[in-house]
Amino acid sequence: MDSDEQAEDFDRLFRSTFRRVMAYCLRRLSETAAHDAVSEVYAVAWRKRRQLPDDEHEAALWLLGIARKVVANQTRGQRRWARLLRRVAEQPRSAVSSAETPELSEAMAGLSADKQELLRLAYWDDLSRADMAALYGISVAAVSTRLHRARQELRSRLATADAHGTKTRNETKVGTPHGKQ
């Protein structure tokens, strides 16, 4: 069977089973999650199409078996996400994020997205330069240079805000992230 025939067979299967698979998922998940689950069901089915039963009824049952596993995975993922949210909610805010002032927020907003991300990784997420280098796929020296430039621009923006009568607090001063190299 060539790929065009496989695609046509799969399209026929999709058309004949979509409502049933969607109804199965909707009975178990929210509407949005059900749509995601159905998409995943047919993606898995396409990857495993060589295992697809020839009988249409058996094929529909095979798809419902895949749907059962996809729904279970999504449900587990939702439980993990809820546990993570509870743990995060129980954590005290970090000293750096609680020190954020309107002046700092405004100065950060004036930076490029890349510089904002770099500063947040260093100060909010408390990553070392080595960790940031691994994340970006660049050298530690390149991270240090970029971080230095981002801090310089942030300092300049904070100084400009201060010169225009906006009082900045000591907490907004930017230095080396927690002594990490």
TrEMBL record:
Source organism superkingdom: Bacteria
GO MF terms, alphabetically ordered: DNA binding; sigma factor activity
Domain RNA polymerase sigma-70 region, residue spans: 13-80
Classification via Pfam families: Sigma70_r2 (PF04542), Sigma70_r4_2 (PF08281)
Key words of the record: Sigma factor, Transcription, Transcription regulation
One BP annotation, GO: DNA-templated transcription initiation
SUPFAM superfamilies listed in its UniProt record: Sigma2 domain of RNA polymerase sigma factors (SSF88946), Sigma3 and sigma4 domains of RNA polymerase sigma factors (SSF88659)
CDD domains reported for this sequence: Sigma70_r4 (cd06171)
Region (Disordered): 157-181
Transmembrane regions listed in the UniProt entry: none
Gene3D superfamilies in the cross-refs: 1.10.1740.10, Winged helix-like DNA-binding domain superfamily/Winged helix DNA-binding domain
Signal peptide: none
Name used for this protein in its record: RNA polymerase sigma-70 factor, ECF subfamily
Originating species: Streptomyces marincola
Phylogenetic lineage: Bacteria, Bacillati, Actinomycetota, Actinomycetes, Kitasatosporales
